[in-house]
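To assess whether the prediction recovers the assembly geometry, we first specified each molecular entity separately, as shown.
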Amino acid sequence: MAEDKEQPRGAWAPAVERLSVSDVPEGAINLNLEGRVPVSPLQGFGPLWQKSFRIRLRGLDKSPAEVMAIWKAEFPRFQPPGNNFYPTLAGVQPGELIFIDSAVSAMPGVLPAIPIASGVRVIFADDETFTIMTPQGFPEAGWNTFATFEEDGSTWAQVQTMARTSDPIYEFGFRFMGGSRFQDETWHHVLTSLAGYLGVNDEWVQVRKVCIDPRIRWRGITNVWHNAMIRSMIGMPGWALRKILGRGREQKKGW
Amino acid sequence: MPQANVTMNVRHPNSAVSIIDIAGQVTAFAENVLMDAYTEASNETTRAVILNFSELEYMNSSGIGLLVTLLIRAQRQKQQLLAYGLNDHYRQIFDLTRLDEAIALYSSEAEALAAVG
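The predicted structure of the complete assembly is given in tokenized form:
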């Protein structure tokens, strides 16, 4: 994207007051999305961080746009085990939802076992970038931007987050229960998996973290009402029951 | 490092208000230009910084992120951040990203100056 090169023109999603779920991908749990208000880094609770994770795709003979096309098309594939992403049939497009079923640890060093079902909305996309925005109740309030670009003769892939934890429970989890480290490991995994998929191995992920606003945003304390982790723990048994009953009804019809 | 396709000019209509005229593209590459402009716009008497987007050609999601960083810097200095000159498309993006809840939008420079009081 040098000065004389045409900037790729992106598309923005339409503004919505609340999220509306109409197309649930096969396998997605679909909790904590319908009716939720999208939130920016200005609406969360904890300190505001900008974290950049990037990897050099050294020796790869693909342009940033070609890499981004693969990244969008295969987005769920690059997530770590247990972090299940479900784009809608339309794929990673402005205005589309990506359903996310994940889990967090009850304490540092313990395997993730507490479920979180939620999702994000794609708000911007162009040939070399896409950005997602989180809804109320998601662990973080803000945006993640996935980008590819050319620098020093190589194509690079980057994940940049600009977000605060959404509420005091998530803030505690990020600070003391390994949540922040878990997030870092997730983006490391995504970038090294993407690189590996493209045949680039042995490259390391460069990390830059800047605390843009160290203050706690106390007004965000009430965000805990929408906490997707708590609501998933409450909602999951009902979801599982509905799924079992639904399957039973389908089998009955088959008989 | 790719160069920014943006220029920013700083004006001081009075000792309490500064205006940053933004012309070109606000993307990740505009970071240094924007932060330098803010540094020039801000001093101990500045109560408000007004962003003039009349000559904005393009802004992507990274550019929106820069405005959040700028907003936090202004809030730390107890300064208001206001904007004018956004077309309907970018007003809608401020609505989408909920930036309009923190950066007050006006139609003209006169309106923005009047709002500062």
